[in-house]
UniProtKB/TrEMBL annotation:
This is M18 family aminopeptidase. Its EC number is 3.4.11.-. GO terms for biological process: proteolysis. GO terms for molecular function: aminopeptidase activity; metallopeptidase activity; zinc ion binding. Signal peptide: none annotated.
Length: 472
């Protein structure tokens, strides 16, 4: 055998997506993704966009089917959990065959308003914040920021707040100390240099107009409250029952002279949410029921009733089986789960040539080479990870090879240097076969992450292929 033939036969052959996919197809798909990622600055907004996308493609809420009292083969169903997580499924077969599920999270690192956020100091009104998820705090100083979320008044009225996204809106800033006055900074540890209690959002500097020269305490703060009341009808106490999220006021933009990359806030992990949703929508016939699960709270441990630990989707499956008149719903639900597989759709850390020392280069993903398969995540000797079975990995790579899907493997940095977690282990605990698989990024958890358009498109094709053909 020729030496080159032997090399091709025995070694891993990684395929660049750009070398085999039509550029117009990549551009067409990722231009639609830009609309999703620009709108979906919070988990609530991501769910809202997802509902519109699903309904435009024939999906109906579970409540609709409960109203008519039945579900038939071919029906497309979705269920929303507290406006911050979502489950969607195509009911193509009896549930006993299992489900091909792709699960992603739709929360991203950010800064949240504290319960009583408004303060005034030196005639500047500010909002106190608490960072959410793993951030490098210095990334967030003196960049344009937006405010999105909901305020629920004491009577239950829900008010949606969105400031900074429209070009006519003001933006917000967390101010930094100029280098001329920060001479001690180089002598501090990064963990000590940036005090999170000083990361306050600037809201205004104009004092409220006095009547009859009567002065009040904190007149700038009061003017801010007056503006909020006039615009939204809310008072300071209403902010106690609010979810207000501070995110970058940055649109998705092409990166590089060849426009091969895309920068955006929230690629982690909304890029996997969008590719999963569109893969589900565009999937055709399947052996098992294809489904997508979008969850909240992954960046802080997946706790809470909208996080992956809640498993609200299992109850949805029960209701679907009941409406479809499947026999012995209660007795076979465990079989449904054990016959199912999940791709834990989360991003990975691509090799940055400026920081190659952070990676084991033989086990690190590269931009432009397709979806990353991660057998395990975790840290400190694989702690808190799923560690996928070899049998599952063999099935997935065999499928992707047959369907000419570009894939690569990855770890999250060198042993004992890197590490992190996904939602994978919470589903493995329920008995599903689970594998982490998603888009590689540069600058993960920064306000402006970078992804390859080719990897975004290839991940969409990978999920679509998984929905249609895994298990055959």
């Amino acid at each position: 055998m020729d030496i080159h033939e032997l090399e091709k036969k025995l070694t891993i052959q990684k395929k660049s997506v750009w070398s085999k996919r039509d550029i117009d197809s990549i551009e067409g798909y990722t231009s639609k993704y830009k609309k999703f990622i620009d709108y979906s600055k919070t988990e609530r907004l991501a769910v809202k966009y997802s509902i519109k996308l699903l309904e435009d493609n024939g999906f109906k809420p579970l409540s609709y089917y409960e109203g008519i009292g039945k579900i038939d083969l071919g029906d497309k169903i979705y269920f929303v959990n507290r406006e911050k997580s979502l489950f969607a499924i195509k009911y193509n077969h009896s549930m006993k065959n299992g489900i091909n599920l792709v699960g992603a999270h739709i929360d991203s690192p950010r800064f949240d308003f504290k319960p009583e956020p408004l303060i005034e100091d030196e005639n500047i009104a500010m909002a106190k914040t608490h960072y959410y998820g793993g951030v490098k705090k210095y990334h967030w100083f003196n960049i344009p920021l937006e405010l999105h979320g909901v305020v629920v008044k004491s009577d239950g009225t829900k008010v949606e707040v969105s400031i900074g996204d429209d070009e006519n809106d003001p933006i917000f800033v967390i101010s930094d100390l100029l280098p001329h006055l920060d001479k001690e900074l180089p002598n501090k540890k990064v963990s000590e240099a940036f005090d999170p209690e000083k990361m306050n959002l600037i809201l205004g500097t104009i004092s409220i107009t006095y009547e009859n020269d009567k002065k009040v305490n904190n007149p700038v703060k009061l003017n801010v409250l007056k503006i909020l009341f006039e615009k939204y009808g809310i008072i300071e106490e209403d902010l106690v029952s609010a979810e207000l999220e501070v995110v970058p006021a940055l649109k998705a933009r092409d990166v590089g002279l060849d426009r091969s990359l895309m920068a955006s806030y929230g690629h982690d992990d909304r890029v996997c949410a969008y590719t999963a949703l569109t893969g589900l929508i565009d999937s055709s016939s399947s052996l098992k029921n294809p489904a997508v699960l979008l969850v909240d709270k992954e960046e802080i441990g997946s706790d809470g009733n909208t996080g992956a630990k809640n498993h609200f989707w299992i109850n949805v499956i029960r209701k679907i089986m009941h409406l479809a008149k499947e026999e012995k719903v209660c007795s076979i639900i465990d079989d449904v789960i054990s016959n199912s597989a999940l791709l834990s759709a989360d991003v990975s850390a691509a090799v940055d040539p400026n920081y190659k020392e952070a990676h084991d280069l033989s086990n690190a993903p590269r931009l432009g080479y397709g979806i990353t398969l991660m057998k395990y995540t975790g840290s400190g000797g694989k702690s808190r990870t799923n560690d996928a079975n070899a049998e599952l990995l063999a099935k997935v790579r065999n499928l992707f090879n047959k369907e000419d899907i570009s894939w690569q493997v990855g770890e999250l940095g060198k042993v004992d240097r890197g590490g992190g977690g996904t939602i994978a282990l919470f589903f493995a605990e329920k008995g599903l076969d689970v594998l982490d698989a998603g888009v590689p990024l540069l600058g993960m958890h920064s306000p402006y992450e970078i992804a390859s358009k080719a990897d975004i498109y290839e991940t969409y094709l990978a999920y679509k292929t998984f929905f249609e053909k895994f298990g055959k």
